[in-house]
Design goal:
Length: 225
């Protein structure tokens, strides 16, 4: 018989797991990792800034995408991938970053999917599903850390220098500033480890004496604060 067990701690862990996975995925897909120096759409695309009159804007550069304003576009900014193939990503460090972040996000998405069903299933192959998911989140967090540590090492590439100026170098952003996607990825990494630790609390909450008493009373829906 399936017992639906809902507790505050288990629901909070589920919600945090979903939010973390979603946040990391959005950050990875975003072009707002680096915000370039101001320039105009009809400027010569060089590391020395804008060379023509017009309304200035700041292009953005992601791990595999970018947002720029082209002269023939009267309004709006064109966003899309600059790398069609994996080998066209700006540097080898960013390629490694992509691999580590993708691996971490894949694990987080898998845990977020599984977490929805933890209300009905608390164990798998006689092992606590919360502990298994917590372990996966810990591994995902390590992948994310490796990816974020390698990311600034790619700032010395030619692609980054076009957006950030000739002073851009590994672990030095030059004229660029960090975009919201980078901070979202960092925040998501912190939340990943918080979820990994909190999974133990979710396990304790769903296997407490109060839950066992409710099960023995024959209840199929158990809600505890």
């Amino acid at each position: 018989m399936c017992h639906v067990i809902v507790t505050c701690r288990s629901m909070l862990w589920t919600l945090l797991s979903i939010v973390t996975a979603f946040g990391e995925l959005i950050a990875f897909m975003s072009t707002d990792w680096l915000v370039g120096f101001p320039r105009t759409p009809d400027a010569v695309f060089s590391p020395h800034g804008a060379t023509a009159a017009g309304e200035a804007y700041r292009p953005t550069l992601g791990i595999y995408g970018r947002c720029i304003k082209l002269p023939h576009l009267k309004r709006g900014i064109l966003c899309g991938p600059y790398a069609i193939h994996f080998g066209e990503i700006a540097s080898g460090f960013w390629q490694a970053t992509s691999i580590f972040l993708a691996a971490g996000i894949l694990l987080l998405c898998a845990v977020a999917f599984i977490s929805v069903f933890t209300m009905c299933f608390q164990s798998i192959m006689k092992k606590s599903i919360f502990n298994v998911c917590g372990l996966l989140q810990g591994i995902a967090g390590l992948f994310l850390i490796l990816g974020l540590m390698l990311y600034p090492a790619g700032w010395g590439s030619d692609k980054v220098q076009l957006y950030c100026g000739p002073d851009a170098a590994p672990y030095r952003a030059g004229l660029c500033s960090m975009g919201w996607a980078f901070y979202t990825a960092m925040g998501g990494t912190v939340l990943t480890f918080i979820c990994a630790v909190f999974s133990a609390q979710a396990e304790i909450a769903t296997s407490s004496d109060k839950v066992q008493e409710e099960i023995e009373e024959g209840k199929s829906l158990i809600c505890l604060l």
